[in-house]
Amino acid sequence: MTDAWSVDQHLDAVLASVRPLDPIDLPLLDAAGCVLVEDVLVPAPLPPFDNSAMDGYAVRVADVESASEEFPAHLTVAGEVAAGGAELPTVFPGQAVRVMTGAPLPPGAQAVVPVEWTDGGAGGGPATAMTPAREQWVRVFRPAAEGAHVRTRGSDAPAGAVALPAGAVLGPPQLGLLAAVGRSTVPVTPRPRVVVLSTGSELAPPGEPLGPGQIHDSNSYMLTAAARQAGADAYRTAAVADEPETFRAALEDQLSRADLVVTTGGVSVGAHDVVKEALRGEVDFRRLAMQPGKPQGFGLLGAARTPLFALPGNPVSAYVSFELFVRPALRLMAGHAGGALHRPRALACLASDAPLPSPAGKRQYLRGSFSPGEGTVSPVGGSGSHLVAALARADALIEVPEHVTEVAPGSELTVVLLG
Ligand SMILES: Nc1nc2c(c(=O)[nH]1)N[C@H]1C(S)=C(S)[C@@H](COP(=O)(O)OP(=O)(O)OC[C@H]3O[C@@H](n4cnc5c(N)ncnc54)[C@H](O)[C@@H]3O)O[C@H]1N2
Ligand code: MOO
């Protein structure tokens, strides 16, 4: 039997075998979460024209320079501009023009006084809102400096500036910016399409009663959700029985619609290890120096060289394998790079009453509950790779290095933070 691969060797081999998907143009909302493949420039100044930041009056600075509540400036109201207004009355000396937030600044105006700094034309003290009908005159109680409450053309982004650089991840603010500069579609790396296929003659779908020896298929739900959380368009298929022909047919059926395939089960040394049997020669099956997640298969299938991960069937093994190997591969295919491929990590001190044993020569990933405030992590459940209930209570994986055989309470360890 060949030597076991380290976690890092396997991850490196996986990441060296996959590449970002070919870019496509997507409508903005379909591109949410995707990675931009080229710089997007600002085609015209943003905002495109000088406009008012307040509901109030566009004025000339000299007309209000000595205004106070005791000695207000009296201005004639020469017109109104609402947001979207195209006809702009000029503000001549001694005049004011009603302007609403977002309205283009009329010619002649140098500043905007908010309505609260005026009587709103009502003849009393400071107003609280603009009147619906246009008043003849307005009294202004305060001076305004040149440019006050005016958002100048190009003050957010000048024409020709890089709105977003290649590599930017398109979250809500980035999509908002693309829309603001007039883009309706954007070139991105698409979300990988993932098919998740569980194997096991013992598997029954959730919602159906269990027969003798049966268990519900949980892996395909867990991993499809994990793939979606990683940013993929992921679909699960019905679990297939431990028959190589059935498995092969189900796989062929799915391959054309997948950029990446994940299978679970059938990769160990049993008499019915269907995935191993059906894909021998096409997929590398290897043992990793890791617990859980020892048996792993990875290969590039068919003419399209579609990456296939054959993960172990034990639910915790499958999930840990997904987080450590499949997620980074999916993120790379989706155009992410560097640290964005991986889950965030932190250092934490082990909070536990007793020392934790760990297998010699294997990197162990225990399930844990991380307390960022205290900087501690507590083990959740034991090391058994069937402990799916404990997995559901965990929010971190506790990484115990290969050379460590016992972790004393208080020891500092790396934790992988799960989302
Ligand atoms: N003699 C040996 N036996 C085993 C070894 C070994 O080295 N020598 N390795 C063990 C380890 S470690 C793992 S992990 C498992 C991997 O087994 P398989 O990938 O072949 O998976 P199965 O045998 O099909 O299933 C294992 C376990 O998980 C349950 N399972 C499978 N699929 C699902 C699913 N979709 N949902 C929920 N649970 C599932 C299945 O019922 C089994 O209990 O092999 C060990 N054995
Ligand atoms: O390593 Mo298996 O992957 O623990 O249960």
Examine the coordinates and then state which fold CATH places here, giving the name of the CATH topology of the largest domain. Molybdenum Cofactor Biosythetic Enzyme, Chain A
Cα Rg: 32 Å
CATH superfamily of the largest domain: MoaB/Mog-like domain
Would you count the extended β strands for me? Answer: 28
Catalytic activity: adenylyl-molybdopterin + molybdate = Mo-molybdopterin + AMP + H(+)
Keywords: Magnesium, Metal-binding, Molybdenum, Molybdenum cofactor biosynthesis, Transferase
Protein name: Molybdopterin molybdenumtransferase
Family: Belongs to the MoeA family.
What does the model show?
The protein is α/β, with parallel strands linked by helices and 419 residues long. The protein has 4 domains: 7-22 and 190-341, 3-Layer(aba) Sandwich (Molybdenum Cofactor Biosythetic Enzyme, Chain A); 25-47 and 154-189, Molybdopterin biosynthesis moea protein, domain 2; 51-151, Molybdopterin biosynthesis moea protein, domain 3 (Molybdopterin biosynthesis moeA protein, domain 3); 345-417, MoeA, C-terminal, domain IV (Beta-clip). The protein is built from 8 helices and 28 strands. It has helices at residues 7-17, 61-64, 172-180, 219-229, 244-255, 274-279, 315-333, 388-393, and strands spanning 24-27, 35-36, 40-41, 51-52, 56-59, 73-81, 95-99, 111-114, 137-140, 150-151, 162-164, 185-189, 193-198, 203-204, 215-216, 233-236, 260-264, 284-287, 290-291, 295-301, 306-311, 345-350, 356-357, 363-371, 376-379, 396-400, 406-407, 412-417. The chain has a 6-stranded mixed β-sheet, sandwiched between helices. It has a 5-stranded mixed β-sheet with strand order 8-5-7-6-9. It has a 5-stranded mixed beta barrel with strand order 22-25-24-26-28. The model has no long low-confidence stretch (mean pLDDT 97). Bound molecules: ligand LQZAQKY5 and molybdate ion. Residues 291-294, 312, 314, 317, 385 line the site of molybdate ion. It catalyses: adenylyl-molybdopterin + molybdate = Mo-molybdopterin + AMP + H(+). Pathway: Cofactor biosynthesis; molybdopterin biosynthesis.
